[in-house]
Amino acid sequence: MSDQRPIIGHIRFSYYGLTDTRLQPDAEDKALAALYDETRIARRFHLFEQLTVPSLQAQTDQDFRILVMSSDVMPDAFKERLWLVASRLPQATVVFSRTRRSIYAYQRHMEDALGPDRSAQPLHFRLDDDDALAHSFIARLRQAARDMPPRTHFSFPKGILLFPTAFDGNEGASIMINQYLTALGLAWISDADFLRPPFAMMHQKLWMDFPVVSDPGFPAYIRAMHFDNDTRFRQNRFLRSYRAERFGPSATKRAAEVDAALAAEFPSITRPWLDGLIADLAQIKGLADLPSVA
Hints:
Distance between the termini: 43 Å
Number of helices: 8
Shape: globular
Structural class: alpha/beta
Oligomer: single chain
Mean pLDDT: 91
Number of strands: 11
């Protein structure tokens, strides 16, 4: 099996439809209003532009494609900005889907990746629009997938977590984490008999049905937890132990671990800059607070 199989990354940018997020369509369109609230979307753009896109531009292996999936009901001003930002990536295609079921939104694209004779075995990975991947991610993923069969999944559990330091605070901090079968950078080999879309999986239970290759040997991602990716109450419970560890007796060591990880895999990012993104988000209320992308 060739190690030059096509690699396709999938990013869901405020897609409105039935998917694995908490903003599901409803009769009163409350979810639609929440999804495209200008403050929320402006903050998503800020992280997409500052973290996600630069991390893909920095890949040491540039032989990959990116599909950015959104919805036709996205307001025009947001559509225009998404087009302009995505144009920084020659590999990127933006789709504004009319369907409200993500499994159908991705179907044609999963099929197209098989090639004209449907014989290709493409390698897919998923990434949220507010996270980032290590600059060696594509190269390492390609190597890990070499000679592996379809349905094999790839997990890169080690990464950096960015989070608010307090429940109602606007300061940020970061810490190294290790989460097996995290959704960040989760990848799999597809073929004509295995066309599951990227956001239709229970990623933490994949090991029960599929072979999984896990590589914890490098910091593969930056995960951003902030004001808009979940309720603060749920987020606060999740972050309790990380806050205690980051600011406990080993605080200096934990900071140094992040510094080393950034130097190795995100060389254009420093820890003070990364931690400062949380305070930046707090100041953003709309598109007018973002730099121009024209």
